Amino acid sequence: MSVKRAIRPEDLFELKAVSDPQISPDGSTIAFVETTMDRDTNRYVSRIRILSASGDGEPKRATSGPGLDYAPRWSPDGSFLAFLSTRSGEPQIWIMPASGGDAELLSDLRDVASAPVWSPDGRSVACIVEVGSDEKDVLVIDRLRYKLDSVGFLVDRNWHVFIVQAQGPGRGEYRQMTFGQDYNFSSPAWSPDGRFLAAAGNRLPARTEIDLINEIWVIPATGGTPRRLTRSTGPADHPLWSPDGRFVAYLGHNQRSGYYSNRGIWIVPVSGGEPMELTAGFRYPVGDYAIKDFLGYGQPAAVPHWSRDGRHLYMSVSAHGAVHLWRFSVSDGRAVPLTRGTYVIYNYSFSSDDGRVAFAVTAPTLPNDIWIGDIRGGRIQERRLTRINQEWLDRTVAVQPVRFTFRSPGGPREEGWIHYPPQIRPTDKVPAVLEIHGGPTVMYGYVFFFEFQLLATNGIAVISSNPRGSMGYGEEFAAAIGGDWGNLDYRDLMSAVDAAVSRGMLDPDRIGVAGGSYGGYMTNWIVTQNHRFKAAVSMRGISNLYSFFGTSDGGYLHVDDFGAPPWQIPQTYLRQSPITYVANVRTPLLLIHSDRDFRVPIEQGEQFYTALKFLGRDVRMLRFLTETHELSREGKPRHRVIRLEQILHWFQRRLNHS
After folding, report:
1. 571 DSSP 8-state letter
2. Labelling 639: which of 5, 160, 306, 338 has CA 20 to 30 A away?
3. How far apart, in whole angstroms, are the C-alpha atoms of residue 445 and residue 414?
């Protein structure tokens, strides 16, 4: 047996990401997306593969050629596969026979922005299309919400529902179903009889720009005025019709804890009436909140699924670092977990008879794979179908993190994980890095985190935890830091380091700290509050909450969190801003930021860098001129490798590790 080697930054080019498994209506076949990074072109390549649900044979390539192929969707009778592709330029809908053969272009639209959704009779597909004027170099801005990270400027751009004919003499013809510059729509879903579409949409006037309140709308399939089905006080999206067409389920919350509210499942009668929160009183948020740095192209969000008899809804749930499938009773909201274990399910789909579910799984030492589950009563009997990255795993070392628990003074019991270097001995004292997640309303957990594995297999342990503010531990746990960043979360993180060091094998004199987004804010905050850490890396981090309010694409969304806008309570914002205490910094700091980051704009990094350089501190900035806030997950492949190289080298040099 050959000796396995440590992971290298350029290993990103060797890994394959799988996502969006779509099981055929009869449950016999799975179509999924495989994404790789092309070293020569510095681009992503995504292809659709077909796999037998029995597990016999290797996945077969269903698409090829230039461009990105993603979002496969089976026709209701399973005879065709529609998908999105950029092979002709902008994303368009293509269709191919399920039995094999060449794909044909179906749509000729500006920019298809959602997966195709087949009508029940298989004659049409619905989708979301971006409409508006072409890109300009001069913008006239009248709205509060005028930009969005990774999307760009929103001026004269809207997203509307379209229907494209998939069969018959009018094949390829399309109709726009929603209109207006005051509306944006997403997530179209057909009624069982094909007479209506439900979609999520927001209307921008009044305070909806600040609160991002969405509604669920019903749209006649023949055209006409959309009818508002909900009167939301918060987000509402991903509608889904019940099998009898009497109800629409959707995801959302009523902002009872503002920004920190658990997302739940809601049900509203189509005939009219008040929505009911099916998951009221349920402790955990529905959906996948496990943060990752290794994703497939166009990887979709988790959505609910009605059982065929209309008695249950299936949905993923985030709890204690894991994401599993649960079943919720429509009659009483009773929740039953169907899968268990230390892994994360991030995409899934069900056969038409609810007998099978295909899902994509990641675990700490498993980048990702496609699994199949047979539903038997209250459990899913799952089997792993693919070993997509087995050759790479056979050549490299991946470490299993060790879970630990801790409690900060006066706080609840919390959990964290340590990625120890491989073959560590009880008498060893190795350097370590505290990694802090973004959000803050996400969670670390049982995923393959490339950055953690890179550090650990190169001799630097990684400490990660879910401090208060994280999702997956109850709404009260998440809301504990509301309007009070840098207090309870800071205490929790310091207690996590104390607990990890107390277990032995970590050198308390060689500890670093790193984090991105909100984790970057916490990194900036920590180095202004103590000199415990020997090196730090702050990625796309907030330094000044006052200016963040006006420069971020979502800074003003935190106004209710802090109690008022910054000009009314400047001391509240400045008291919680790392820039206020910048003169205290003594820790060598690497700042990583991107010029096209609209979420945490580059000015946040510039302020901290300039102040520290002016003070003569040990600081460096790594600046990516063409990247967004999503650099670590979706940036250009070479940029992602450079970022990882810089992080690894920074800690190796300053934690005195060779």
Report:
1. H
2. 5
3. 13
Nearest to 6 by CA among 568, 396, 371: 396
- Of the listed 191, 495, 629, 632, which one is catalytic? 629
Q: Examine the pLDDT at 297 and tell me if it is beyond 90.
A: yes
pLDDT tens readout for residues 317-326? 999 999 999 9
User: Closest Cα to residue 419, out of 515, 303, 506?
Assistant: 506
- The topology under which CATH files domain 395-654 is Rossmann fold (3.40.50)
Residues 417-450: tens digit of each pLDDT: 999 999 899 999 999 999 999 999 999 999 999 9
Helix (H) or strand (E) holding 382: strand 379-384
Q: Does the pLDDT of residue 492 top 80, yes or no?
A: yes
Asked if the peptide bond before residue 440 counts as cis, ω within 30 degrees of 0, the response is yes
Q: Is the pLDDT of residue 196 over 50?
A: yes
Best CA proximity match to 93, nearest among 121, 59, 128, 66: 128
Q: Which of 517, 543, 552, 594 does the annotation list as catalytic?
A: 517
Using the predicted structure, report yes or no on whether residue 560 has a pLDDT greater than 90: no
What is the CB-side half-sphere exposure of residue 184 using CA atoms within 13 A?
A: 22
CB neighbour class for 280 (10 Å; exposed up to 12, middle 13-18, buried from 19) = exposed
What is the dihedral sign for C-alpha 91, 92, 93, 98?
negative
Residue identified by tokens 């946040």 is 604
Q: What is the 3-state secondary structure (H, E, C) of 97-114?
A: ECCCCCCEECCCCCCECC
Angle at 417 between CA 412 and CA 418, to 5 degrees: 135
With residue 165 as reference, give the H or E element that holds it.
strand 157-165
Q: Quote the CA–CA distance of 436 and 510 in Å, as a whole number.
A: 17
Residue closest to 612 by CA, chosen among 651, 652, 583: 583
243 Cβ neighbours under 8 A, 6+ residues apart? 192, 306, 307, 308, 309, 310
The CA distance from 360 to 59, in Å, is 14
Q: What secondary structure does DSSP assign to 290-337, as a single string?
A: B--S---TTPPPP--EE-TTSSEEEEEEEETTEEEEEEEETTT--EEE
104 contact partners, CB below 8 Å, separation of at least 6: 94, 95, 96
Beta-carbon neighbour count of residue 100 at 10 Å? 9
Integer Cα distance of 273 and 246 in angstroms: 12
> How far apart (Å, rounded) are the C-alpha atoms in residues 636 and 42?
6
Q: Up-side HSE of residue 326: CA atoms within 13 Å toward CB? A: 25
Task: Tell me whether residue 305 is one of the annotated catalytic residues.
Answer: no
* Residue pLDDT, tens place only, 587-606: 999 999 999 999 999 999 99
Distance of CA 615 to CAs 582, 583, 593, 618, 639, Å?
Answer: 9, 7, 20, 9, 30
For 416, which DSSP code?
Answer: E
> What's the angle, vertex CA 628, arms to CA 365 and CA 612, rounded to 5?
95
Written in H, E and C, the secondary structure of 138-158 is CCCCCCCCCEECCCEECCCEE
pTM: 0.95
In whole angstroms, give the CA distance from residue 513 to residue 434. 5
Indicate if 629 belongs to the active site: yes
